[in-house]
Structures are given as structure tokens and as C-alpha cells.
Write a structure and sequence with these properties.
This protein has a single domain (3-161), classed as 3-Layer(aba) Sandwich (Aminopeptidase), CATH 3.40.630.30. The protein is built from 4 helices and 7 strands; from the N terminus they run E-H-H-E-E-E-H-E-H-E-E. It has helices at residues 13-35, 41-50, 102-116, 131-139, and strands spanning 3-7, 61-68, 71-82, 85-93, 121-126, 143-144, 156-161. Its EC number is 2.3.-.-.
């Protein structure tokens, strides 16, 4: 089976299902880490609804969906923070598909999308407990940097120069 990555409307049913899977996983990990429980269902619904992902819509953003054998299994998005800087958002691959090459493919496609938006640098934030994500970013050439935002859950910030044009 082969991987494909293509733009997807941020408000499509596919995007919504992958956003729900992503948010459920990272929220449950946080609550299990700090409170020994999963996310309250009402809170989960409020938080998923509160972040529509509209910032991943053109002309200043892009949401990408990875498919394996035609099935949607992952996402990555980029949005411009300024004329030269893009932010990597919502990098996620369903657990059962991890370790098969989808995440690096998604990140490379997101970097290409950032270049297409005019960015020369890409940044991201992540949490301490998302060890797999931090390992992935380091392996793909991202370096830890000073905070560029004050997001309440951000504990690590990364940056990468987008050299050349791969688009």
C-alpha cells in the first residue's frame, strides 16, 4: 500500500474526524499525566468545537491529509505567522499507522506548503510528554529554540530554516 498526501479543506468531514482523534489523544495524555484520568467528554466536545482550524485555510494556511491505501490516517497543517515564518500545526498519524513513514512524509509536505506560502522558516511548539514528536522533529532537522508564543501547554519550541525550493 502506498502513502499519499494532499490538501484537504480544514472543515471537511475527514479533517474533522482526524482533528477529533488527534485532540482526544493529546488531551487524554495530558490528563493521564497530571490527573490520572481521561478527558471529560463535555470538555472534549467544547475544546474540539472551539478550535475550528480556520487558520489552516488558504490563503495563509494549508491542511494536509495523509492517506495510506486510500484511507485518511494523518494530518499536518501550516499557517503563516508573518511573511517569512510559518507554523507547523496538528501533526498527527493514527497510532496503528505509526512507524510506517507517514509522519516524515507529512512534515516534508507541510514544509513544501510553507515554502509555497513564502515562508523561509518554520516553527512549532509541543509538550514534554510528546516524546515521539520531539524525536521526530529533531530527526528531521528541527532545533530547539526560544519560545515564540505563550501557549499554555507549550513546553518545547522548535525551528527550521526552509532552504531552497522543493515545491
Amino acid at each position: 500500500m502506498t502513502w499519499t498526501v494532499a490538501p484537504e479543506p480544514h472543515d471537511s468531514p475527514v479533517a474533522a474526524a482526524l482533528w477529533r482523534a488527534y485532540y482526544t489523544e493529546v488531551s487524554d495524555r495530558w490528563y493521564q499525566r497530571f490527573e490520572g484520568r481521561t478527558t471529560d467528554p463535555d470538555e472534549l466536545e467544547r475544546e474540539i468545537a472551539a478550535d475550528t482550524g480556520a487558520y489552516l485555510a488558504p490563503p495563509n494556511g494549508t491542511l494536509l491529509v495523509a492517506r495510506h491505501g486510500g484511507e485518511p490516517v494523518g494530518t499536518a497543517g501550516v499557517r503563516l505567522l508573518d511573511a517569512a515564518t510559518a507554523e507547523l500545526k496538528r501533526v498527527f498519524v493514527r497510532e496503528e499507522m505509526r512507524g510506517r513513514g507517514g509522519a516524515p512524509l507529512l512534515v516534508a509536505a507541510a514544509e513544501d506548503a510553507a515554502r509555497a506560502l513564502g515562508a523561509r522558516r518554520i516553527v512549532l511548539d509541543t509538550r514534554n510528554d510528546l516524546v515521539e514528536a520531539r524525536t521526530l522533529y529533531a530527526r528531521l532537522g528541527y532545533t530547539e529554540t526560544e519560545p515564540y508564543n505563550d501557549h499554555e501547554y507549550a513546553e518545547h519550541w522548535f525551528s527550521k530554516r526552509l532552504e531552497g525550493v522543493r515545491v
